[in-house]
Amino acid sequence: MKKVLLFVCSLFIGLAYGQKSENSLLWKISGNGLSKPSYLFGTIHITCDATLSEKVKKALDNTEQLCLELDMDDPGMQGQMLNSMMMKDGVTMKSLTTEADFKIVDAFLTNNIGYSAEILNPVKPFMIATMLYPKMLGCEMQSVETELMAIAKAQNEEVIGLETVAEQLAVFDAIPYKEQMNELVITAKDNMQRDKTELNEMMALYQTENVEAMLTFTEKSPNVMTSKYIDIMLNNRNNNWISRIDKIAKTKPTFFGVGAAHLGGKQGVIALLRKAGFTVEAVN
């Protein structure tokens, strides 16, 4: 029933845009002064199967560089991320919740990642949640971005980013730490069951290549980190990316890979690129 509702939602979204909504993760960008087309691809950051389709591999062959959300082959990226993990102004997880809930989180983190909440006390709760992804998957974690980078490296192509580590992690300072902690408490109390269910549903939806349904799924998420703060997580960043995509694509044909939830909707990258004058067509 849930999948039926998602399909109906995406259908109405497509009608609202006055054009047929096509199911594809890969889109060709042309026109607006481009001498050669670039490509836009919706990724999934963690999955059980990151196998790339033949059409994606062909698009990589037809471009000259790879642009992800971040420049993931930057040797300084890990250090930058570590420097941005801590909450500002001396805030700690213990100060954001009750003593009883902190004890629950402490036992949960010790059991699942081998570090206590006492040790991780000043770290942003969202960053801690990302450490739990391998446990949520129930399989060996794979990354579409890693597969894209492997091909780019084999082709001796440069990997660049649409935003800096500081810009991306600033998102998690804009979302109240209290709400981040509330979500981590929920995760601890139900031993990740809600998150596991949502992740499995998202991975299944990703296989349909329906970018509008993926956006709808994100908007309806029970996790307020995404649904309540979708402007911070998606829309604001999408708008910031358009001028950067324009500049990069006019430099050389580029394969752009960003999270699939960024593609659909009126504030999605596809619609915004079209508004900026580009022709954006599904590759099937």
Automatic annotation (TrEMBL):
Sequence intervals crossing the membrane: none
InterPro entries, A to Z: TraB/PrgY/GumN_fam, YbaP-like
Protein name per the record: TraB/GumN family protein
